[in-house]
Specification:
- By secondary structure, this protein is an alpha/beta fold.
- It is built from 11 helices and 12 strands.
- The longest helix is centred in the N-terminal third of the chain and has 21 residues.
- The termini are far apart.
- The structure holds 2-amino-3-ketobutyric acid.
- The site of 2-amino-3-ketobutyric acid has 11 residues, from loops.
- Belongs to the NAD(P)-dependent epimerase/dehydratase family.
- One of its GO terms (biological process) is L-threonine catabolic process.
- Pfam families: Epimerase (PF01370).
C-alpha cells in the first residue's frame, strides 16, 4: 500500500474526534492532518486551524502535507441548520465544493463525504427505508446532503474522483458531544443519568429513529473506504443501519442501572424534523457490497455508554 496522508475537516466534531484517533492508529500519527476552526484540547497529533470555506487555505494544506485522502466532516447539522437556513446551505455546499475541487485538481485518491438519514422526507416507507427512495428532505441540512451525494457521484462519473459516502443514522458515543442535531437527545440523556440529574427530552417518548453506536459508525466508515473500488456500486451514498429505538425504550434501559433517573418529555421544533425521518433503514446494498453488519444493540450500547461516562466524570475528564 502506498503511504496515505489523510486530511480530516471538522476533526473536533462528534465523529471527527473519534475518527481522527482511529485513523492515527491505522496510518500513523504523523500521517493524519486534523483540521477544524478550533482545536479539540484532548487531541494529540498534527492539527491545523482551517476554515474549509477558504479554498486557498485548504489547497495550501493539501500541498504542504502532500495529502492523498480527504475525510470531509465539517457541516452544520439538522437542528442548528434550521435556525439559519441560507447560511447553512452556503457553508455545507461551499465546503463540499472546495473539497471536491481541490481533490480533482490535486488528484486526491479518495474522498469521504458523510450523508445522513436527513436526506429522506415524508414520502418514503418509514420502516426499512430502501436505498433507492425518492429524496424529499425536510431540512436545509438534508437538502444539502442530498445535493452533496449527487455532486459526489457527478465528480466520480465526470472526473473519476473516488468519492464514497454513508447515510449516517444518529451517532451515539461517549468520547465527544454531538453538535446541533435532532438525534442529540440520545447522547445528552446518558450524561444527565450519570450526573444523577433529570432529563427533559425534546422529542416525544415514542419517536423511533435510526441510530448507530460510535464504534459501528467508525467501522462502517473504514470498511467503506477500504473496500475495493469495483465493489462500490452506490456512488451517491450508502444506507447503513445500526439499531432503532425511541426515547422511552432508552429511558427504560438506562433505568435498569439508574433506578431514580427521571425523564420528562417536552417536544420542540425538532419533533417535526424527527417525524419526517425514517424509523429504520434497509442497508441491503452495504451488506452486499462490503459486508456491512452492525454489532451494537440498545443493551450493549447502554452498558458501554454508562460505563465510560462514569469513568470520565469520576476522573474529572469531562466538565460537570
Ligand atoms: C442530526 O440529527 O442532524 C444528525 C444526523 C442524523 O444526520 N445526527
Amino acid at each position: 500500500m502506498d503511504k496515505e496522508i489523510i486530511l480530516i475537516t471538522g476533526s473536533s466534531g462528534q465523529l471527527g474526534t473519534v475518527l481522527a484517533e482511529k485513523l492515527q492508529e491505522k496510518y500513523g500519527v504523523k500521517n493524519i492532518i486534523a483540521t477544524d476552526l478550533r482545536v479539540n484540547p484532548t487531541f494529540n497529533g498534527v492539527f491545523e486551524t482551517l476554515d474549509v470555506t477558504d479554498f486557498d487555505a485548504i489547497e495550501a494544506i493539501v500541498l504542504k502535507y502532500k495529502i492523498t485522502q480527504i475525510y470531509h466532516l465539517a457541516a452544520i447539522l439538522s437542528a442548528n441548520g434550521e435556525k439559519h437556513p441560507l447560511s447553512t446551505w452556503d457553508l455545507n455546499m461551499k465546503t463540499l465544493f472546495n473539497v471536491l475541487e481541490v481533490s480533482r485538481i490535486h488528484k486526491i485518491s479518495k474522498v469521504f463525504f458523510p450523508s445522513s438519514i436527513a436526506v429522506f422526507g415524508n414520502n418514503v416507507e418509514r420502516l426499512n427505508t430502501p436505498q433507492s427512495s425518492n429524496l424529499t428532505p425536510s431540512t436545509v441540512y438534508g437538502i444539502s446532503k442530498a445535493a452533496g451525494e449527487n455532486w459526489g457521484k457527478y465528480y466520480f462519473d465526470k472526473y473519476g474522483l473516488d468519492v464514497r459516502s454513508l447515510r449516517y443514522p444518529g451517532v451515539i458515543g461517549y468520547q465527544s458531544l454531538p453538535g446541533g442535531g435532532t438525534t442529540d437527545y440520545a447522547v445528552d440523556i446518558f450524561h444527565k443519568a450519570v450526573k444523577n440529574e433529570n432529563y427533559e427530552c425534546f422529542l416525544n417518548a415514542d419517536t423511533t429513529l435510526p441510530m448507530i453506536y460510535m464504534d459501528d459508525a467508525i467501522r462502517a466508515t473504514l470498511e467503506l473506504m477500504e473496500a475495493p473500488k469495483d465493489k462500490i456500486t452506490v456512488r451517491t451514498s450508502y444506507n447503513i443501519s445500526g439499531l432503532s429505538f425511541n426515547p422511552n425504550q432508552l429511558e427504560t434501559c438506562i433505568k435498569e442501572n439508574y433506578t431514580d433517573f427521571k425523564v420528562t418529555y417536552s417536544p420542540d421544533f425538532r419533533q417535526g424534523i424527527a417525524n419526517s425521518w425514517p424509523m429504520s433503514i434497509d442497508d441491503l446494498e452495504a451488506r452486499k457490497d462490503w459486508q456491512w453488519k452492525p454489532k451494537f444493540d440498545i443493551k450493549s450500547l447502554t452498558k458501554v455508554m454508562l460505563k465510560n461516562l462514569e469513568l470520565k466524570y469520576n476522573n474529572n475528564l469531562i466538565n460537570s
